[in-house]
Specification:
The structure is a homodimer of 274-residue chains.
Chain A lengths: L6 E5 L5 H10 L5 E5 L11 H16 L5 E4 L2 H15 L4 E2 L2 H11 L4 E6 L1 H6 L1 H9 L4 E6 L1 H9 L5 H11 L11 E4 L8 H8 L4 E4 H16 L11 E5 L3 H12 L8 E3 L6
Helix pairs in contact in A: 1-10, 2-3, 4-6, 4-10, 8-9
């Protein structure tokens, strides 16, 4: 069995490209369609109702591209909307980033104390703590919202004075004392580009867990389970869609993709309900 | 002549409350209705077309509240949409923050070299440079986008290590050498709360110009010109509307308002076209 339809990847904006990159590495033969809702980003400061409404419109748009599966490459949307999205997109398989991230965190910890950093909305929703406790009921979870990391990543200020001072201010309180977490889940797709700066503050013994690679593994397993993997010899194609500001999408997206994205290769789409 | 209808004040989110505060101080008898489009903020990273569409919906909503005038307390919306908004809201008077800010900058400079800091969208649009040159054709204008200042202000990190490092990184290149600007226009409503930190970097001889006070003066003059001032003895009322996240609006809004805003006093409104 095989299925050459593309996989739809959705994010509020540009950060989800870290997940897209991991998918491309793990599944080189798959076609990928990435949609960034740049007209309404960020989701991390908005209410669950608004995030759910936006994410539903965006993923329905991806369905029009004939996708075989949807990956919610956005922690906030995964945290607050995975249930309603799975319902709305039935029978399409929908995979979020929270469960793979929680699984990776549980797999990495020795002490059982797991730190989670994310946007305000993700932390407030408590989805990571729930997902971690579902896998390991005796885990101790410490969370901190790190909103500025999103802007720092988008500004390309991933190291240097400003990033280090921000990392210290957010993380030092969490990693003080001998009962500090031994594992830190990067619960926002923007954060992996700040990994080196974060490591400087939390120390080299703390394991950083990023849901991009584990999400790619979850997608790989789901494709295999359902016989939905692509069958082609060459590399799959990657297509970029954005709801606004294709020039900025290309410029900032390159930071996360690790290679140049040209503005002319980003298609502007209107996903508002008509 | 007098007119007791409220003045509508619009911003993409919360920063415009610095303008609202100045309006309240200058026009204590006026009723004010403030609308923050928190469901779609920030505007500063979005395209002119999208900003214009959002601002038009928001200001049309304010018209339903029977306002006598609209103040665009958002630099990005003023910069890219004042023309279309004035057209769409005719014959309602519409006042933006760019011209008052430019006027204040021109009034403050001695050397003729004016610095402007703003969001990416405002800087790109070039509206400040145009407004300054219209008033003073021989002025020299240096601009810098300072996107992180928006997040710093919303995080409440208006002083300390992170804010200072960011201010240095953005502003030191602009204020190097003896031909540096002698005046700096704060071309984003979020920036006044960072004034002390900015001053530390640019030096005490540089005049900081903030469009909030000058916009309030422009509104005062326009009301007087048209005989639209309110006639009442007591203080006017201030009403807050937001398109999302009223709890966050209240919490972060307090930073800009300089006094507590209670979440239950912020009304959630839906302004999307039906």
């Amino acid at each position: 069995m095989s299925d050459n339809r593309p996989i739809g990847v959705f994010d509020s904006g540009i950060g989800g490209i870290t997940v897209l990159k991991a998918l491309r590495a793990a599944l080189p033969h798959e076609d990928l369609v990435y949609l960034g809702d740049t007209a309404r980003l960020p989701y991390g400061t908005k209410s669950p109702e608004t995030v759910t409404a936006y994410a539903t419109q965006a993923t329905k748009h991806l369905m029009e591209h004939g996708v075989k599966m949807i990956v919610i490459a956005c922690n906030t949307a995964s945290a607050v909307a995975i249930g309603p999205l799975t319902e709305a997109l039935k029978p399409l398989p929908v995979i979020g980033v929270i469960e793979p991230g929680a699984k990776a965190g549980v797999g990495a910890t020795r002490s059982g104390h797991i730190g989670v950093i994310a946007t305000e909305a993700t932390v407030k929703g408590g989805a990571y703590a729930r997902a971690i406790h579902a896998l390991k009921p005796d885990a101790f979870v410490s969370q901190a919202p790190c909103g500025l990391f999103v802007t720092l990543a988008e500004e390309g200020w991933v190291s240097g004075d400003v990033a280090e001072a921000a990392a210290k201010r957010y993380l030092a309180p969490l990693f003080r004392g001998k009962n500090a977490p031994d594992t830190l889940v990067l619960g926002c797709t923007h954060f992996p580009v700040l990994a080196r700066t974060i490591k400087k503050v939390v120390g080299k013994d703390v394991k950083l867990v990023d849901s991009a690679a584990t999400t790619a593994k979850a997608v790989q397993a789901a494709l295999a389970d359902r016989g939905l993997g692509a069958k082609r010899r060459g590399k799959g194609k990657t297509r970029f869609l954005a709801t606004d500001s294709t020039e900025r999408f290309a410029r900032v997206g390159g930071i996360f993709f690790g290679e140049i994205i040209r503005a002319k290769d980003v298609e502007l789409v209107d996903i508002r309900p008509s």
